[in-house]
Amino acid sequence: MVHFVGAGPGGPDLITLRGAELLQQADCVVYAGSLVNPALLGFVREGVPVYNSAHMTLEQVLEVLEQAERAGGNTVRLHTGDPCLYGAVREQMDQLDRRGIPWDVTPGVSSFCGAAAAAGVEYTLPGVSQSVIITRMAGRTPVPERESIASLAQHGCTMVVFLSAGMLEGLSAELLMGAYTPDTPAALVYKATWPEEKVVHCTVGTLAQAGRDHHISKTALVLVGDFLSHQYQRSLLYHPGFSTEYRTGDGSAEPGGSL
Ligand code: SAH
């Protein structure tokens, strides 16, 4: 069987217990070498073959998975963060189905969560933004036109931009075509949860300069939005004037209440 496992954002203790156990039991491991922390390979038993998929094509990965399956073992296909984001897993799953090879998925902590932890932020602040757009710039690999940064930026909500740290000039220009201004807060989070993690606060207007100043051009996320300014309304959920299924409030924060 093939287990797709989310490795988490970098810190080797941020893989799930299930993911670590699968790695310990694996008879073969194929990991996404460019971003998975090699320290995670410490979970793998001695003598187990380990392949770095950064040097392999889809065909070569499938060949390894197929051979391991024929030998009757368990294979871990280790992806950075959570496999469901920019993991190119769908094509592997479909090809495994075609070959009759069973697979399952163990989620991981995505880097957008690791970046929030590194920056100490909440993406969904009451009165500021209740939506997070996860996207990326079009680069050597395309993004559908209707999802251009400029069009998504119309919402002015929290944005987390993957795979774009090498295109900060263009990213900044596209963000400014939407609802953001040059002063809208932004942050570059480099290698969140790795020992070399860096969090650089800047604005939409100074993104490219911040990238140059701090030598960040890859393995980073760009966070954009007013959530970074930490000005917000307090939550209703924990307000003494608001009732929930578990707690009775005095009604002052309910619609029509005194607040
Ligand atoms: N599946 C992964 C994303 C893979 S795409 C996930 O859930 O996080 C690779 C991109 O993810 C990188 O270019 C970078 O933008 C981002 N990324 C991955 N790990 C990161 C980390 N530790 N810190 C900041 N960005 C990271």
| Widest beta sheet: strand line-up | 3-2-4-1-5
Class of the largest domain, according to the CATH hierarchy? Alpha Beta
Q: What's the number of helices?
A: 7
How large is the share of residues in beta strands? 15-25%
Strand-pairing-aware structural class: alpha/beta
Textual characterization of the structure:
By secondary structure, the chain is α/β, with parallel strands linked by helices. It has 2 domains: 2-109, Cobalt-precorrin-4 Transmethylase, domain 1, CATH 3.40.1010.10; 112-229, Tetrapyrrole methylase, C-terminal domain (Methyltransferase, Cobalt-precorrin-4 Transmethylase, Domain 2, 2-Layer Sandwich), CATH 3.30.950.10. The protein is built from 7 helices and 10 strands. The strands form 2 sheets. It has a 5-stranded parallel beta sheet with strand order 3-2-4-1-5, sandwiched between helices. It has a 5-stranded mixed beta sheet with strand order 6-7-10-8-9, with helices on both faces. A hairpin with a 7-residue loop joins strand 8 (185-190) and strand 9 (198-203). The protein is globular, with a radius of gyration of 21 Å. It starts with a strand and ends in a 35-residue tail after the last strand. 37% of the residues are buried. The site of S-adenosyl-L-homocysteine has 24 residues, from helix 4 and strand 10.
